[in-house]
Amino acid sequence: MNTSRFRGRTLLLAWLYSYSAVLVMAFLLFRGISTYSWATVPKLVDGTAHRPFVTRALLPAVVRGVMAATPAVRERVERRVAGALADARPGSRPERALEALGWTPDDVYVHLVATGVMLACFLALPWVLRRLVRVAYDAPPAVADLAPVFGLLALPLFFVAYARYLYDPGTLLLWSLSTLWVMERRHVALWLLLPVLAYHKETAVLLPPLVALRDWGHAPRARVLVVLAAQLAVVAGVRLWVGQQFAGNPGDTVLWVGVAHTRELLANLLRRPPYIPLVVAILGWLVLSGWREKSLFLRRAFLLVLLPLVLLSLAFGYVDELRGYYETWALVMLLSLPTVAGLLGAAPIRERTPAG
After folding, report:
1. At 161, is the pLDDT very low, low, confident or very high (cuts 50, 70, 90)?
2. Which of 213, 225, 248, 352 has a CA between 20 and 30 Å from the CA of residue 141?
């Protein structure tokens, strides 16, 4: 491919991915972000939100850092917002916009910065997904280029029920990146990413077993087990430190919704619109169709990450909250890709031989 054609392709993909990311961000804003009073964006950022939400600390810390580095911009934005509202009539466009977004005049800037940070995650996500497709499959370039669009545009399916939190886009990006580096066996990068992922969310505990799964047939098993134990210790250390930082916040270490919610779901399964079962059924069919012919590593990795999440959600009572499974999204996309390609009449997608 000559240089001009490569640049043209890259620019086209940048436009397509950016458009898709902005569209997803718009859907997220329309549905509302962190709408529950115990975990609003301002409370997550200033560290006063309830546990366990406040302990998902990475993206709030990034927002806080950006705000601290831009005091002049914050002052200018707040002055303009105050001026627009002072000159506006009741029910004016600025008031309606703030009401629709669920923002107040005092927290506009923190929401704008948070939106920018979340959008940055969505902008980076398709490039990581594209690389994942190229690593996992010997597929035509067009498949690798367009698959991330599916990976992005399907996300609003998960924005319907319950809340959407500031840290969710970070979960999608960091776990996609983790999956990529596990498949590429980039050990140093994974060691550097692990504490960041642990600072982000407690589900980082699932990454060391995923690393062990990938290395099991490529390294002495004793070394794999030592690395597993060491990485779990890193996650535990970071999570204990984060927990101490917010030990005085209201709430509990884990969110206990209770099994009564699960019983209510089952009792009313046929009385409510089957939106969540339908989404799960469609994604399940895309993943499970031709299951035995799909990559053994991807199948095992998917089950390794998904099953603990499902068991925990059943135990704590939020099994129907689809955003609780974002850690598996990159694997869902990869396992769905051969099925989608078959539906579109494309040539079969072959698994790429893993690097040794």
Report:
1. low
2. 213
